[in-house]
Amino acid sequence: MDVKFWIEFLVVAACIYTGARMGGVGLGVMGGFGVAILVFVFGLTPMSPPIDVMLMILAVITAASVMQACGGMEYLVYLAEKGLRRYPKAITFVAPIITYFFTFFAGTGHVAYSVLPVIAEVSRETGVRPERPMAVAVIASQQAITASPISAATVALLALLETDFGVTLGDIMMICIPATFIGVMVAALYSSSVGKELSDDPEYLARLEAGLAPIKKDKKTYVANRAAKGSVFIFLVGVVLVVMLGMFSEILPTWTSQVIENGEVVEKVVTMPMATVIEITMLSVAALMILFCKPKVDEITSGSVFKAGATAVVAIFGIAWMGDTFFQGNLPLIEDAIGGVVTDFPWLFAVALFIMSILLYSQAATVRTLMPLGISLGISPALLVGMFPAVNGYFFIPNYPTVVAAINFDQTGTTGIGKYVLNHSFMIPGLISTTVAIVVGIIIGSFVL
Question: Which helix (DSSP H) or strand (DSSP E) does residue 58 occupy?
Answer without folding.
Answer: helix 51-69
